[in-house]
Amino acid sequence: MEGIGLEGDGSNGEALGKCLSGLVDDGSIESHRYFLSRRTVLEMLRDRGYAVPNTEIDLSLHEFRAIHGQSPDFDRLKLSVTHKTDSSKRMLVVFYGPGVVKVSGIRLIAGLITSKETLTGLILIVQNHITNQALKALDLFSFKVEIFQITDLLVNITKHVLKPQHRVLTEHEKQRLLQKYSIEEKQEYDLKGSFKYMENTWKFFTILVSYMYLTFTS
């Protein structure tokens, strides 16, 4: 019984080393971040009722890198989807580079949109802050623009067991809710502030988990 598993020809240790090496990601962190954030935004769009092929969501990291390489091109990551039950609703997703988002960058994005009249929404995924002038430029778009930091999309927090599923209330449901709890319309904005605090707490948790995940796999 003495020394069993502690001495020998080292074959067990070599096998263990190969097993552990399989868990280490030897690719670029940049491509891994784009892969994770792209998958999360696709899942989010699917949950909103947009037609997103399962093949896109189920794309593996290896397959993603085979298509986009270790340093993905932002323009190739751009994608658009149409709503399953309302073909007039079309959403465009644009990834922005690591630099600060300025007015000139917003103009470039506007140039990418060749059919703005059929677009009902834009999701802009950034890695840095946006200047006030750039935010004002986004207000000029005729459709809703949603801005996400890429770090907020590395993990889909809606998959967490403690995170309840969210959906947008209909106008009728909203009025019933306000009436049930005797809330006036103007008080709705105070509630949004409280929900925003809760949302930021979840974002901190998400960033922490994402950092630990990327640290372990890189």
UniProtKB/TrEMBL annotation:
Residues 155-187 form the RNA polymerase subunit H/Rpb5 C-terminal domain. It is found in: Nucleus. Residues 30-110 form the RNA polymerase Rpb5 N-terminal domain. One of its GO terms (biological process) is transcription elongation by RNA polymerase I. It holds the Pfam family RNA_pol_Rpb5_N. GO terms for cellular component: nucleus. GO terms for molecular function: DNA binding; DNA-directed RNA polymerase activity. Signal peptide: none annotated. The keyword Nucleus applies. Its main location: nucleus. Keywords: Nucleus. Belongs to the archaeal Rpo5/eukaryotic RPB5 RNA polymerase subunit family. This is RNA polymerase Rpb5 N-terminal domain-containing protein.
